[in-house]
Amino acid sequence: MTEAPMTAQAASTATAGDILSRHLTVQAGAFLRALPLAVGEVGARPGTASTVPSAGTSDLLRAVRRIGGLLHTFGSVFEQTWAQESRTELRWLLNLLALEPGYLRRSARLLGALDLLSGTDPEGTGMLAGHAGAPKARALLDRQLTLARTRAHSTVLQELRSARLHALADRMTLLVGEAPLLDSADGRAPAVLLPQAAAAFAALSAGAQQLPLQRAATPYGGDGLRRLGAVPASRGATDADTALAADDAPWARLRILVKRARYVLEVCGRASSELDGLDAVLDRQQEAADAAVTAATAARTPRITPATAYVLGVVHADQRLEVESARYAVGRRWPDLPPGPDGWLELVPADAWGHSVAPRTV
Amino acid sequence: MTEAPMTAQAASTATAGDILSRHLTVQAGAFLRALPLAVGEVGARPGTASTVPSAGTSDLLRAVRRIGGLLHTFGSVFEQTWAQESRTELRWLLNLLALEPGYLRRSARLLGALDLLSGTDPEGTGMLAGHAGAPKARALLDRQLTLARTRAHSTVLQELRSARLHALADRMTLLVGEAPLLDSADGRAPAVLLPQAAAAFAALSAGAQQLPLQRAATPYGGDGLRRLGAVPASRGATDADTALAADDAPWARLRILVKRARYVLEVCGRASSELDGLDAVLDRQQEAADAAVTAATAARTPRITPATAYVLGVVHADQRLEVESARYAVGRRWPDLPPGPDGWLELVPADAWGHSVAPRTV
């Protein structure tokens, strides 16, 4: 198994297993190279760091997302129990690794928003310029997010030494060249892989259809603040937390479906800049929604002053506005994307799995 | 002096004074008919009423705005001291009459926004759904606005019986058929009126050029919340109130210039639906900006709970978002409007003042 292009003859007879094994080998290799770097970085980090994850962690997250995505989309050709367990363990590591950089980004987002809103720069004066509650709210948010990040750091440090991570590393070692495939993986690549790719695209289209994309594409429609999506009757709609969680859930789901579709296209050696852009906007949507929750939670801290609470109310609304703005961008981009699964499949080159495609490692 | 069309021959020799006198006669007549109705309405009102001004007050405001606008735009053909004094007195009455309906509209706007933001309707759940501070903030806003409206009502009741109003009514009686014109009003209508109309359109174009209309036309650009206009150095930029007032001022100015331009076109017997639409959007912009100030002021009430203050922060941001949304609408509409004074003058029919045009009384 090698990354070098196969000869045309060998390629035309490639099985689904060949194609997937090759990709998984590359990603598992990236995982194993990045893991010690990431562990070293987390250990060296004093708890405060920059807002972008360090190189090792970043590479590790990248590999984890892709392996998990492929095991999901093309799951039926792998040994079922193994694939399920691997996905569970990868999701565990993903959530663990994403925790600390997530808090760092959230901190940068919220404190940055507060600084803009309370800024007195003539070029960008904010509606809270010079407000007495602004420094207090800033200190409160900073304190709470630093605490959360420090706790996350301890958890990550501890888990990175755990037997669970070693077991996952062993799984990844196995994946290099020896993915546990079922007999169905012996079929020719297009016949086996295309229907599963189509299912991923169908899930993406279905996920998008559940969203009010047309309404979101109307600027200032109030989707982020005033007109949250309907709460399923079973969950009740008595409080804002439930309503906001129910409103954000289908968008969070779309983000996952977009990522899976991106990884499928990568397996075809095809990049979609539209899909990459959509993924970035949905990341922004998600981060703003999470930051809004943090602002709302901070406002419930006992014994804060009314001025602090008032500023947090403005920050909360500002982040929900960011949510609305990101959804507007999604609503505007969506019509330019291929409609339905068939539209996406047209992006798959006819000979996608007929000749060798060098898997992307970035 | 009559509203019936003049013969074509008489019309072709109409002087500027003829045209303006005819319009002012109609508007002054409307003023004198609406005045007793408006006085009766204010007297009969118990202090709480609907959000639209009653018919008499509405008609009176309409006539006051138009007479004031024409005396400003075509001021040079009137006896100067008389025109200046008349405008001052009309502005006094305008501010007086607008006070109570203004508070009614602001109350409806703020309580309506709060109800949407805290609503639990499955079709329109708000980000404050079920929040404990929402009923408290609602009661606070309602109480403060009702108090302000009651005070305004007393002031209006008192002033409507004042000698000042009687003197203004006498001025309007004089205006019916006998506007105090200078000799220059004897010139032919187009020669005298067109340059003054052009000056009004030039002021409108210049007012618009001072605004970041192109930036405003970008959705979610943050103009209402994060990027307020620069505060003139002389006024300092140390607090949000100064920054917001400085930010809103040029937009408030544009609103007045649009109204004046509308009244000029009316004198030409020409309606501009684009200008009417722009006027309505600028009204919305102004009302949202005023409502935002009310929310911010309410949040400074001593001894309110943090939950109340938090909700008022969200409402404040929501109204600034409305400001941004209205400015977006202005930024989108402006390019479709005639560019520069010459563009506007092309809307003036070549024979605008060559044949009789029935002045509009609504």
TrEMBL record, chains A, B:
InterPro entries in alphabetical order: CHAD_dom (IPR007899), CHAD_dom_sf (IPR038186)
A Pfam family that this protein carries is: CHAD
Query: Mind telling me which SMART domains this protein's record contains?
Result: CHAD
Indicate the segments forming the CHAD domain, all copies. 13-339
Name of this chain's protein: CHAD domain-containing protein
Question: What is the scientific name of the source organism?
Answer: Kitasatospora xanthocidica
- Upper taxonomic classification of the species? Bacteria, Bacillati, Actinomycetota, Actinomycetes, Kitasatosporales
